[in-house]
Amino acid sequence: MNVLVTGASTPLGTALVQALLDLQDTAHVVGVGADPWPRELPPPGARFTYVQMDLTHRREIRSLLGGPRRAVGVDAIVHTALHRSVQAAGRRVHRLNVEATRALLELAQDHPTVRQFVYRSYAEIYRVAEDSPCLVGEDHPLEFAPEAPQWVRDRVEADLTVCSQMGLSPLRIVVLRCAELFAPDSGSQIYDYVRSRVCLRPIGYDPMLNLLSMEDAVRAHLLALRGTVQGVFNIAGCDTLPLSRLVAVTSRVGVPVPGPLLAPLYRLRRATVGTEFSYRMNAPRFHLGGVLDGSRAHSELGYEPRAPLSWKEVRRWLAEERPSLQSFRRRRRLRRTTAGNRAR
Amino acid sequence: MVFRPGFGPARPAREAAIETFGEAAARRIAKVLLPAADRERLARLALPDAGHGYDAFGLHPAWVALSVGVGRFLYDYYFRVESIGAENIPASGPAILAANHAGMLPLDAAMLHLDVLRQSEPPRLARPVADWFVPLLPLVSTLFSRSGVVSGSRRNVARLLESGELIELFPEGVAGIGKPFSQRYRLQGWTVGHAEMAIRHRVPVVPVAIIGSEEQWIELLRIRRFHWFGAPYLPVPLFLVPLPVRYHIYYGEPIVLHEGWKATAADDPTIVEAAAARVRQAVEALLARGLRARRGIFR
């Protein structure tokens, strides 16, 4: 099996490349990332190639599947490359999140060797409302609210773009709507929330959350690649717990605050310290929660969460971070990127 | 077997030992409030655990114990609940308890919840199904979900039944709990969802009549423009506390609504309505029996 993995420089992409290379039946892996060769990835060799590429340019995507790399004979594409920052917005971000997904899918359909397309989607695309069930199935309504941040809207659009080709395309398409991948640098809002020593939460509410470990996320992708079914699957994690318990196991201090005060307080925090966490985006699930129902993935894909998060390791990650300085730099970089995107 | 999301390996001892303030407080208060016999019954409850001591709906054993500890004073001393026909509660497997609903606040649901826990052998926890606005209520939503209440969506009920749980449904809904005093013991709009779920999931329905709750609180007036946190209205009671009426809970024989039907019959409105009418008649018959047997509202 020859696999092309987009987003190979992200933590999930890196772990996926490693896992694929550990499999005997993987002949070649092509990793595609926006950054220069990440240290975590293996060195170039007979079984692995890394391509640094900007997926917002259709021409580059074309060169990825055609040209000299056509000889590799890619059988499957795993698309995980989406912009991770909630604060980033603009046309360029949309081009990466949606247009690149569409282009990659179209080119894969016309490609002579590609047979499978696995798309990593997100649980955040589901609408959270008071009449929603606690367990969220694949047929749950999606978040189409115009006031939703671009991060969500883009993901909904990209997910539907891929889903719309199911059954019409010669490809076997699998969409994995993953629960919150709780790891640093993976774009996890909840991880960013607990990066702060003091975690504010709405008074009177303690929603249930479901968190996914990297190991389970990788295993779900491998099962999707090696399986024979196509469809949309919720990928739930092992850790189902309320927000208050998450705060406790990460050794943070939870402070209940009246709901209406949370948005301005977190806005203030973002402006002063600089964080990725957006309360506006998370407000519905910080009140009502929602846990992915993974029955379909269990019965059809054979996926069952097995690897719980190692909270000891999570506490170590959090202790190693230097939030204020890192965040300040990240915020400055982000502002420039967003301003640039809007200008374009 | 139904896959429970988040069902994973046991936590390492250190993480299991970490308690939130709420969990620790609930455990300690429950220990003070509950006598040894109740603690022993609670210990025998088979509660689902999604890995951190909570199930996917938010239920936690310490909070269940706290709710039982607080509720038992109402159950034993205030409403002096008498239970008739509790042998009809299925000892195992999924089932729906369909009851009449009244009393301004869902104290009848709480008493039924406690009665099932006290009377069933082995002890079972009935999961009350609340209206959709309940998850919006601050504090109440958390306390309810920790004690086993789930919001009334189709998927929630389906998942609970598939997991073999006993659920407590009030087909009258808000119309029932807010019924005027003059309409007491007259079933209001009887929804059919319970019958549909029973046919689809092939589970029995146990009709339940709660005598006493319909006189516990008289509504003086209703502020219809009050919709905070999604509430349909704000009731203003005649008394600050409910009357110490005596509760009599009657359990009827389980009704097998799915007999002779396939699961797809749940899609046929005629079949479902007829099935719901059977349950309604059974509840009405139990209500009539209970009212005939009662010697007074406080006795």
SSE topology sketch:
The complex is a heterodimer of chains A (344) and B (299).
Chain A: E1 2-6, H1 11-22, E2 28-33, E3 48-52, H2 58-65, E4 76-79, H3 91-110, E5 116-122, E6 135-136, H4 150-163, E7 172-178, E8 180-181, H5 189-194, E9 198-202, E10 208-212, H6 214-226, E11 231-235, E12 239-242, H7 243-249, E13 253-257, H8 259-272, H9 279-288, E14 291-292, H10 295-301, H11 311-320, H12 323-343
Parallel strand pairs in A: 1-2, 1-4, 2-3, 4-5, 5-7, 6-14, 7-11, 8-10, 9-13
Antiparallel strand pairs in A: 10-12
Helix pairs in contact in A: 1-6, 2-3, 3-4
Chain B: H1 13-17, H2 21-33, H3 36-43, H4 61-78, E1 82-84, E2 95-99, H5 107-119, E3 126-130, H6 140-147, E4 150-151, H7 154-162, E5 166-169, H8 173-177, H9 193-201, E6 205-211, E7 219-223, E8 234-237, E9 248-251, H10 269-293
Parallel strand pairs in B: 1-9, 2-5, 2-6, 3-4, 3-5
Antiparallel strand pairs in B: 6-9, 7-8
Helix pairs in contact in B: 2-4, 4-5, 9-10
